[in-house]
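Methods — Computational structure assignment.
A single polypeptide chain was analysed. Its primary sequence is given first, followed by the predicted tertiary structure written as structure tokens.
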Amino acid sequence: MESGNHSRCSRCGKNLPQGSVKYIMKLTITADFDGFLEEKDTGSLDTEALLSSIHEKTEEELEDEVWIERVFLLCQECRNKIVHDPLNAGDPSMEGWVT
């Protein structure tokens, strides 16, 4: 992101000299648990499979599945593109947004 007195846009790589217009974007992704846990055919929870999948992952991998945050430095052009189409879906409408 930064080197000396110059920074680069995290999205396009544009050089952003000291004093130029730039933006910090924080991306936070959090798991959305709806309260439903899948049961086996017997009607009980498959705790063995759940524990096995947990033991196969590192602590960092498990945390990243629940909550992750990243910080990006953006130039004005990239900021504007992200604001109008944050998921790069080609549709700048706000339909489907959760607030």
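Note: The radius of gyration is 20 Å.
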